[in-house]
Amino acid sequence: MKLRTIFALTAAVMIPTAANSQQIDVSSMTCQQFVQNDEAKINLIVAWFLGFYTDEQDPQVLDMSSLNKTRDRFITFCKQQPNFKMTAAAEGLLDK
């Protein structure tokens, strides 16, 4: 839980413009909706998923190269499977 809080705070600091868009419901978001976001929101969503799928014993570091690689994997997958739910895509791409 502590790690998720750190990621949430980091994402909030990294992308202050996301606050203007109220809420992002990743549970109902499809891949098509994901790729239609601007780069800042895409990065925020990917950072959230990385935090959600990070174990507490993992280093509490936001690795920007990992974020970029993961973002590219999500985008590639989502362009091929636009109707997939983001939660299912994340589970397949990030679950260890």
Index terms:
mainly alpha
Query: What is the N-to-C order of secondary-structure elements (H for helix, E for strand)?
Result: HHHHH
Provide the number of structural domains: 1
Rg from alpha-carbon coordinates: 13 Å
User: How would a textbook summarize the main sheet?
Assistant: none
Termini distance?
Answer: 18 Å
Instruction: State the oligomer.
Output: single chain
Number of helices: 5
Give the CA-based shape.
Answer: globular
| Sequence stretches where pLDDT stays below 50 over 5 or more residues | none
Helix-strand category = mainly alpha
Proportion of strand residues: under 5%
Q: What's a concise summary of this model?
A:
This protein is mainly α. It is built from 5 helices and no strands.
What report would you give on this structure?
- The chain is an all-alpha fold.
- The protein has one domain.
- Helix content is 60%, strand content 0%.
- The protein is built from five helices and no strands.
Topology:
Elements lengths: L1 H13 L16 H5 L3 H14 L11 H17 L5 H9 L2
Helix pairs in contact: 1-3, 3-4, 4-5
